[in-house]
Design brief:
Mean pLDDT: 86
Strand content: 35-45%
Largest sheet: 6 strands, mixed
Shape: extended
Order of helices and strands: HHHHEEHEEEE
Strand order of the largest sheet: 2-1-6-5-4-3
Amino acid sequence: MHYYKIILNNTDLKKYLLLIILPILFLISCINPFAPALSDAEADGLGDLKTIDGFFQSFQYAYNMKDTLIYSNLLSQDFIFSYRNYEKGIDDLTLSREEDMITTYRLFNAAKSLNFIWNEIITQSGDGTEQNIARTFSLTILFNQTDIILVSGRVHFILKRNNENENWQLTFWRDESYY
């Protein structure tokens, strides 16, 4: 048996250590020990956007998890949000997709927690590429222990897609909430 004597100078040793340590550091950096793990309920919170039920499940998840990325994927590029300003007595105020995203982002950031619950579907009509749906909901917004807003009401959604292989997207939302 022959034994070979390996002679490494200081520079070579540093290179070999870097080749070993850098990949290990890279792999470790991909793990965030402070990130909360998804519970089974959270992992199952997203629905199949090719189905109406999956769309509503994902919408609820986006609100409850305050997830603007998921929420934004539910809205079509030509999305319109329509509402009534009860304080001023003005009907049919609208927000564009961009304005709605900004408003929703601010709500998600300001609220300590949101609890959005879908209730019954009042009406539903349409075909495989467009659905008109009126549905009731309730929403609890917790800003802090003394500032809680309870909202309930009805939404009128128009969901569209180009064909039955695509995801449903929200093109129109008429909010009929009462506080």
